What we know:
The protein has 109 residues and is α/β, with parallel strands linked by helices. The protein contains four helices and five strands; from the N terminus they run βαβαβαββα. It has helices spanning 14-19, 35-50, 67-71, 98-106, and strands at 6-8, 25-30, 56-61, 79-84, 87-93. It has a five-stranded mixed β-sheet with strand order 1-3-2-4-5, covered by helices on one side. The longest helix is centred in the middle third of the chain and has 16 residues, at 35-50. The protein starts with 5 loop residues before the first strand and ends with a helix.
Amino acid sequence: xxxxxxxxxxxxxxxxxxxxxxxxxxxxxxxxxxxxxxxxxxxxxxxxxxxxxxxxxxxxxxxxxxxxxxxxxxxxxxxxxxxxxxxxxxxxxxxxxxxxxxxxxxxxx
Length: 109
């Protein structure tokens, strides 16, 4: 079941939801047809619950929102970008394990 703590972000809301966020923000760039994206979905939901109040977790559908992925030169999905204080802190591409994602998030908290 999807976590209610994961926000869906659009091109028009990206700056206010992610760049101007008071919390570090992990954005999962994904698409509904992407198998690896579906595979890490439950892990993203778990992280949203575990890091609630410390890191904001967002998902962006690249099919519906082409502008923002273009700005960040996203060429493969899933791509996860961690932002802190409006700046890109780190990026992971591909379906990776929970441990690697926890280590990524711990860089920002």
